[in-house]
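As the next step, I wrote out a protein sequence along with its fold in token form, included below for the reader:
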Amino acid sequence: MVVPAELRQRAGLGEGSALIIIDTPSGLVVMTRDQARDHVRRQLEGADLVAQLLDDRRRAAAGEDAA
């Protein structure tokens, strides 16, 4: 993939920099690993994943017990 020099300089990319490409309904998104990590952290901020997982498991178990 060829990234124009101006964009490389602005993003601090060097030759051979690893990029992540994500296919979204709106099109492709290109990020560095650090940008992707920060993006995921922002999306998960405030989420209580353990509580959500436990709730899901309890509902599944209740459904199995009812069957």
